[in-house]
Amino acid sequence: MDQEERRRQPRTRALKAGRAILAGGHSTFDCMIRNLSPVGAKVTFESTIDIPASFRLRLEDGTTHDCAVKWRRERELGVEFLDAIAS
Question: Start and end of every PilZ domain (predicted)?
Answer without folding.
Answer: 5-83
